[in-house]
Amino acid sequence: MNARTEPEPAGSDAVARPPLVREILLVAGLFLVYKLGRQLATGHTGEAFHNARRVWDFERAVHLPGEGAVQSLLLHGDGLAHLANTYYATVHFPATAAFLIWLYLRRPAHYVWARRVLAAVTAAALVLHLLFPLAPPRMLAATGLVDTARVYGPSVYGNPTTDSLSNQFAAMPSLHFGWASMVAIGLIAATRSRWRLLWLTHPLLTLLVIVGTANHYWLDALVAAALLGLALALIPLPHRTASTAGRTPGRLVPAQRDEQALVGAGR
What we know:
Layout: H1 20-40, H2 45-61, H3 67-74, H4 78-90, H5 92-106, H6 108-131, H7 148-152, H8 175-190, H9 201-212, H10 218-234, H11 254-265
């Protein structure tokens, strides 16, 4: 997918690029806080399974599509399930990192905006992980879903009872979907290519993967979308200033001066 951009109008992204070392430390620090915070939510196995049953029953009550309909598409062949597991395991962090690096280098104002939005969504997600531990559908027998990562590989998780590297009872909300959506929205906002809407295929594919591999419920993605929408509403998008190249606030371009001169001569 081509993220071709055109030259920005003068003053459209005039925010100075933040110091690189500071940004690396900031992003790394936020990531470590989030990982440590997720660990605080471990050990609530009974509550996580109780909440999972509640989410599953709620989805059926409101007639959301069954997650099994998506998974059945992946189970037609080992290759498709393996590809979906690989996408789940390998795309999430690299795609988000590449997105932030590109914005940092090419669109500093959009980078600051996107980093703030991602930090807000992630912080809100951490609070939900602590307040509402949730076992993923692959662990809930009532769903009848297959743990595709365990059966077809690759898997990023170990045994949930001994896994000390991740909290597998933090399905709500899905940061896979929340971050993927922000990547698409950020690139659409920061670029001008006529094909930029194709970036929406990233969150769409992510949604199908997280549901089809039984790592998340539909509701996990819906809550992530709601948190992202709230963050976008509270954190304003950088404004593009003058739409005509060379125009600066308080200064008339030659065409405007000529127009005013003709108006003055006609008085």
